[in-house]
Design a protein that fits this description.
The chain is α/β, with parallel strands linked by helices. The chain is built from six helices and five strands, in the order βαβαβαβαβαα.
């Protein structure tokens, strides 16, 4: 398995801790940036990660920014992406079990590093429940504009 990571100038701080968790599990890690504290625009990195998930370059993704909201909004603009923002272990489990999130989104500024890593572990360990949840996921791409 290969998991991609994207973070902005706040979220990049989680890259190394997340990488350690993944490598301890034998999961390959690909970092799409950014790599430092200089201010950047989160959509630039969200789109790189989302495209990599959509085209199969990576199997899943993890993204982080200050709140997690900017990354989640940008990622979810991609048709093949279901990015779920998690701020605790239980939410991380539910975004996988109920929503089959293929990208986990973390908040670097409002959630401790320890809790973010618990989110990563829970998301990795949780299976999608399918059934009624798949029916709901199938309705997400709706555009009745």
């Amino acid at each position: 398995m290969k998991i991609g990571f994207a973070g902005d100038h706040a979220g990049y701080l989680l890259a190394q801790p997340v990488q350690r968790v993944l490598e301890a599990r034998g999961i390959e890690f690909v970092n799409f940036g950014t790599f430092g504290p200089e201010s950047v625009d989160y959509p630039d990195f969200a789109h790189k990660l989302a495209s990599a998930v959509e085209n199969g370059e990576v199997d899943l993704g993890i993204a982080a920014c200050g709140t997690g909201n900017g990354m989640a909004m940008s990622l979810n603009k991609h048709k093949g992406i279901r990015a779920g923002l998690a701020w605790n272990k239980e939410i991380a489990e539910l975004v996988k079990a109920h929503n089959n999130a293929n990208i986990l989104v973390l908040s670097q500024r409002f959630v401790s590093e320890e809790e973010n890593l618990r989110c990563v572990e829970a998301w990795l360990d949780t299976a999608f429940m399918g059934e009624r949840h798949q029916r709901r996921i199938d309705k997400i791409p709706f555009c009745g504009c």
